[in-house]
Amino acid sequence: MTEEMTRCIETCLSCYKTCLSTAMNHCLETGGKHTEPAHFRLMMACAEICRTSAHFMLINSPHHKHTCGECAEICAECAADCKRIGDMEECVAACEACADSCRRMAA
Predict the structure, then answer these.
(1) 39 near 85, Cβ under 8 Å?
(2) pTM tops 0.90
């Protein structure tokens, strides 16, 4: 496992934890735009693809390039939506970092 892959796994797991925790705590407690179905589903999809990408890299699956490519796309979309809603800086930062890292792993 390369150093870059190890960093990507850590970044994915951090994004997974941040998205899941933010959705289940901040978003549910804040309500309004934070719990719109499309936004909430996107956050759950982002958390899950981050966890899945980390898992594929951990088991050294050659398919990690595919999951990382999808992860980068979903994380970028999630970051943009969290920016749109506002008051979600930690989630935006985690998603942007994960999108960048996964883009490199998918290349």
Answers:
(1) yes
(2) yes
